[in-house]
Write a structure and sequence with these properties.
This protein has 173 residues and is α+β, with helices and mostly antiparallel strands. The chain has 2 domains: 3-87, Alpha-Beta Plaits, CATH 3.30.70.940; 89-165, no CATH class. It is 16% helix and 38% strand. The protein contains 3 helices and 16 strands. It has helices at 14-23, 65-69, 89-101, and strands at 3-9, 28-29, 32-35, 47-50, 55-60, 74-77, 79-80, 83-84, 86-87, 106-109, 117-120, 129-130, 133-137, 140-145, 150-155, 161-165. The strands form 5 sheets. Strands 1, 2, 5, 6 and 9 form a 5-stranded antiparallel β-sheet that branches. Strand 14 (140-145) and strand 15 form a beta hairpin.
Length: 173
């Protein structure tokens, strides 16, 4: 059975590792953050940088782990308590939806906290609800990724979200 794992790469090798894995027909995902400058230079193109420094995510069976480790640029899998970190499929979907929806995303280290169920409604239509949103402030959205220990933060624009249900108290930032 395939599961998502985080692979730790050599510095600045995320895109290269992702390309090598794809060439070997290994399903992978290297989330790219679209960095948009506010310099009002219309000719300047957005820069695509890996969102997670030194991480590429792979969707593989345990049998494929040895093959992934052999790829140039791969250091090892990310481990927690002596085991490779198994990332929830839902967290991977959240990352993909967030990266597809927002630009200039920042990462923060955090402890796990589950709060309101929130549906993102701006920029592009979305039927997805993020059940791990930890904070909303004016136009900023933050969601936590429990299996990675990170928070994704982005400026969402006006009316970017709606509260779907109240599971616990919302944290204002």
């Amino acid at each position: 059975m395939k599961k998502w794992y985080a692979v730790y790469t050599k510095p600045n090798q995320e895109k290269k590792v992702s390309a090598l894995l794809s060439k070997k027909k290994i399903e992978n995902y290297c989330p790219l953050n679209k960095i948009v400058n506010d310099l009002k230079e219309e000719k300047k193109k957005p820069v695509l940088e890996p969102l997670f420094t030194n991480y590429v995510f792979v969707h593989i069976t345990e049998y494929d782990m040895a093959l992934v480790k052999q790829q140039s640029g791969v250091i090892n899998f990310v481990y927690w308590l002596g085991q490779p970190v198994n990332i929830k499929g839902m967290d991977m979907e959240y990352i993909q939806e967030f990266v597809d929806t927002y630009s200039n995303i920042s990462l923060e280290k955090t402890e796990v906290s589950m709060n309101n169920l929130v549906r993102i409604v701006s920029r592009k239509p979305s039927n997805e609800a993020f059940d791990n949103v930890i904070a909303l402030h004016a136009t900023q959205v933050k969601i936590t990724l429990p299996t990675l220990g990170y928070v994704l933060c982005a400026d969402a624009g006006e009316e970017a979200y709606e509260i779907v249900s109240y599971q616990s108290k919302l944290v204002k930032v």
